[in-house]
Specification:
With 531 residues, the chain is α/β, with parallel strands linked by helices. It has two domains: 371 residues, no CATH class; 86 residues, 2-Layer Sandwich (Transcription Regulator spoIIAA), CATH 3.30.750. Helices cover 61% and strands 7% of the residues. The protein has 23 helices and six strands. The strands form two sheets. A four-stranded mixed beta sheet has the order 3-4-5-6. It is elongated and about 100 Å long. The protein starts with 7 loop residues before the first helix and ends in a 19-residue tail after the last helix.
Length: 531
């Protein structure tokens, strides 16, 4: 905690930006989850303050996640009520705590770099495609939706097509001006101004957007944006009304089997999303800091316990808000904590002011973030690294775009695994020959997948040949491959084939190869060489 506020000059402006973006996203995800709107705000507050304090991640921001909307909708459909669902959220947090203490965070380390970067690029493209309708005033889909198939029976591309035909002029004007300001703020002229760089461009965008819309409403009644195109935060007239927004879990549902299955599902999905998010954000961190993954699971677990107890939907570390936080210049987790504090204070004291913010202005901020995530330079770099990196990267992008985050990641992992197996398959066994002299060299890990080629090559060796089988460079040899070699050794004398074995220092491997006995030594020579 002693270093928490050392970077306040960077973290305060970035926390304001994340706060402005988080409000409609928290509300939108709650709406898409068929949960009470305020439950999304509770999750955002808890994700910012509670998880922010406990996490060791300097840049990630936690809150309600679009990737969990389908899980929440399905859970609410099978459980007796929202209070039973809140109990499942609390239990999910307990499961995450257990996973954290079991050091399960190491799972995130097994995701290839190409898949992680593909996820970032995919989120960037999704932000651009999903937020463009909001930029021009077509707000049929909820803010924060990341899935290809939408609840309004449209998909990402049909939503774009409808937006071009059903745009709102005022929203388009506000969105266009907002995006232009964000671009201008990145130009050398604006960057040289120390005063301007102290003011976050998204804050300027929001203030100007609110001012413009209020001017439209006062002077041009037909041009001003209606409430459907603005942030729609629930308003409480007094403290008792505000407290009524909070709901508490029904602990009498502990004996309900469905509550436990929902809790386990939420724990697994939320943990995977959090691990993937912190892995991705750590890769973007200019200071290359590494987040303790198992500690993150514990922080997320406590966050979900508190969120469930107060009436909030599940939380995870969220890539969109984390990316906004990074791009806004955050340096430490103080930004995430301050954003959660701003959420709490604003819903109590200034909800009416927040409800003046046009969604078009916030869409411009998210599109600008999307462009930074899905940059051409990164795509070029992966193309230069070769097909084994480029194909998993592109596959991950396409799979996430047409399905959802977790399914896309799994598909990307499978493609990456295929290339890894293919690479190992090609390099594990080297077979060369010069006339009737053959060399079989086993390298790295020789798996059962190499058995067919080893068996076939051994069978093709002609009579009166000399064979050197070199296993000194192998770290692992599958027993199926050893059996194939042993079969060859036992019959080689029938073709008058002289075999020489060059073994390494791997005692277990050496003992598995059956060196021919004395009764057949006269027909071919064997020897063990130490390297």
């Amino acid at each position: 905690m002693k270093n928490l506020f050392k970077t306040v000059r960077h973290d305060v402006p970035s926390s304001i930006v994340v706060f402005l973006v988080a409000v409609p996203l928290c509300l939108g995800i709650a709406l898409g989850s068929k949960a009470p709107l305020f439950s999304g705000i509770i999750a955002g507050i808890v994700g910012g303050i509670v998880v922010g304090l406990l996490s060791k991640s300097p840049l990630s921001v936690s809150g309600p996640a679009a990737g969990l909307t389908a899980v929440v909708v399905a859970a609410l459909g099978k459980l007796p009520g929202f209070e039973s669902f809140l109990l499942a959220v609390v239990l999910a947090g307990v499961f995450q705590l257990i996973l954290g203490y079991l050091k399960a965070g190491v799972i995130g380390d097994f995701v290839p770099n190409a898949v992680i970067k593909g996820m970032l690029a995919a989120i960037g493209i999704i932000l651009i495609l999903k937020q463009f309708p909001h930029l021009v005033g077509y707000d049929a889909d909820f803010a924060g939706d990341e899935s290809f198939n939408q609840d309004n029976r449209e998909n990402t591309f049909s939503g774009l097509a409808h937006a071009l035909r059903a745009f709102t002029p005022a929203a388009m004007l506000i969105g266009g001006i907002s995006f232009a300001i964000l671009l201008l703020w990145q130009t050398p002229v604006f960057k040289k101004s120390r005063v301007l760089q102290l003011i976050p461009a998204p804050l300027v965008v929001v203030v100007l957007a609110v001012t413009l819309n209020q001017w439209f409403l006062s002077g041009f009644t037909n041009l001003g944006l209606e409430s459907t195109h603005l942030v729609n935060l629930p308003i409480a007239e007094d403290l008792s009304a505000f407290l009524s927004f909070f709901t508490f879990p029904d602990f009498s549902s502990l004996n309900n089997y469905n509550v436990w299955t929902v809790a386990l599902t939420i724990a697994i999905v939320a943990s995977l999303e959090s691990l993937l998010c912190i892995e991705a954000i750590d890769k973007l961190d200019p200071f290359k800091r590494v987040t303790p993954s198992s500690r993150e699971l514990k922080a997320q677990g406590v966050g979900n316990i508190v969120s469930g107890l107060l009436g909030g939907i599940p939380i995870t570390s969220v890539i969109v808000r984390s990316s906004v936080n990074l791009n806004a210049g955050a340096r430490s987790k103080a930004s995430a904590i301050l954003h959660g504090t701003l959420l709490l204070v604003s819903v109590i004291f200034i909800p009416k002011i927040l409800n003046m913010i046009p969604l078009a202005a916030l869409a411009a901020i998210l599109i600008h973030t999307g462009l930074k995530l899905a940059n051409i330079k990164m795509i070029r770099n992966f193309y230069k690294q070769g097909w084994d990196q480029f194909v998993p990267f592109v596959t991950t992008v396409i799979a996430i775009l047409f399905t959802d985050l977790l399914i896309g990641i799994v598909i990307g992992l499978l493609v990456g695994l295929f290339f890894m197996i293919q690479s190992n398959f090609k390099s594990a066994v080297l077979v060369v020959n010069n006339q009737k002299n053959y060399l079989f060299r086993f390298r790295k890990d020789v798996s059962f997948l190499n058995k067919p080629i080893v068996k076939r090559k051994l069978q093709e060796i002609p009579e009166n040949s000399h064979v050197l089988i070199d296993t000194s460079r192998a770290d692992f040899i599958d027993k199926d491959v050893i059996e194939a070699v042993n079969d060859f050794l036992s019959h080689a004398h029938l073709k008058n084939i002289r075999v020489e074995l060059k073994n390494g220092n791997h005692r277990q491997v050496n003992e598995l190869f059956k060196i021919p006995g004395a009764e057949i030594n006269s027909q071919f020579t064997t020897q063990t060489l130490q390297h």
